[in-house]
Prior knowledge:
By secondary structure, the chain is mainly alpha-helical. The protein has one domain. The chain is built from ten helices and no strands.
Amino acid sequence: MGVDLERLPIFDLFTNSLQMRVNSRFANGPVSQELVDLVINNSDFTGSFEHIGSNPRPLTDGLKLIQRKWQKQHHPPMQRPFLAARVVLESNARPMLIDAINSRLSGDHTNADLTHDLAFGIVHVMTPFVEPRIITGREIESGLNKAMDKLNKRFPVFRQPLHVQDQLSRAVGDIADQNNRLFMLDRTGFDLVDHQVNFLEGMKSETYAWDLVLKGADVSRRLYKAIYPLTEGIAPEL
């Protein structure tokens, strides 16, 4: 691929996987419900939540390390919602998206589809926290267009029509502005996380294995709410 996926920003990583997933749906058809059920039944994150509650010290130390590394890059400290979300994205979504992209490039489209859809739910819930600051819909729109332009140059076969790309970017930007307004009403981010999950629960898409998307969303919400309290004293309030 010629790109170090471990170093690619999470938003670019997700955009790459997303466009590949959309094209795969039209080229290869839907994933069987039997496989979807198999993944859901064997993806038990309960142990992760229990571990956080019973032994928070390793995660607390990890949060401190992430914050120190961030500040060493001459950044102001990440605020609590963004630090908690960073852990969810980097420790869960990133490995899944890398696996999905590598599987896609090696021709294993079934694993790529399943893994991407689970990661999709995680990333969607954390989308308002992708950058460690509140960003406007216009900034989101511009960033998404740039990421898709990079993907189109790297993989012309996955290119989307320009009007489709523009519609997607505008829609995502509008949603970001709505989310920011909700964020200001509850600065823990809990209400916004619930809103993100509820939004997915009220939708249905034939492009994705939607049960997997919803599973990922639930995991994302539960992880965020388990991690956020541990950021007290490590990160400033929003």
